[in-house]
Design a protein that fits this description.
about 270 residues, alpha+beta, Serine Threonine Protein Phosphatase 5, Tetratricopeptide repeat, elongated
Length: about 270
Amino acid sequence: MKKSIFVVIICLGILFSIPSVYAEELPLPEGKNIKEWESISAALVAEKRFSEAIIYLDKILEQEPDNLKALTNKAGVLAQLGNYSKSLSLTNKVLEIDPDRLSALTNKAIALKMLNEYEKSFRVFTEILTIDPDNEKIKKSRAALLSGTPTISTNNSEYEVHVLVTVRDEDGNLIAVTESNNARYLPSEYTEIWWKQLDKKEYISYENGFEIFQKSSTMISNEDHLGMITLERVTHGYNIVVFEAFIPMIQMEKTDTAEVQWTIIKN
């Protein structure tokens, strides 16, 4: 009796395992026309089945090679799959036909960002905002891009940076004084925009053909030491570091304060 039950269980196991194997091998439903293929691909994207979605987008493009919607959607799906170069190539094809297509411009900005083409991505995000100035999602995406853009050394640049740091304890006693020219800046048009805003606010002085910005501030270190000073802006929830300077490490107590004097010369 036990043997019979055991055989039945095995048979049931085999019976219910077969459909699951076959299900993986079954071809996807093809649909009959472009409208159906669009619906299927959209449903697959919603389920994050990106590779399968491309099958149906390709079906559309076989029939209509210049279908801008399918090309744009395929570029977006390729970006999801990490194929940013191919995504960018398709997007550029769309933009040759429709230069102001916002979905394609968004795909392009994202692909450029992921390819570490930060400044090109910034320009595309800015182009989108020229077309759609109130697009909050794009404003946040551009701010996130700037926040994640690596700074570069001011050596051999148009900027010369000097910081003077004076640290005092809670009673005003001098703890340390240090200075540094070891600085980095954000290599973006955004930096130039920021600089022009300083000029409009009359924070820039002129001397012998040079533009000079000076700023003093008092700060408390969040750590038990101070080794880096930043000039940054906060926009749309992101901190954008425009300049940063590195100083010899200074040990600080929570009650110590640091007076920071920035001098930035642009030539």
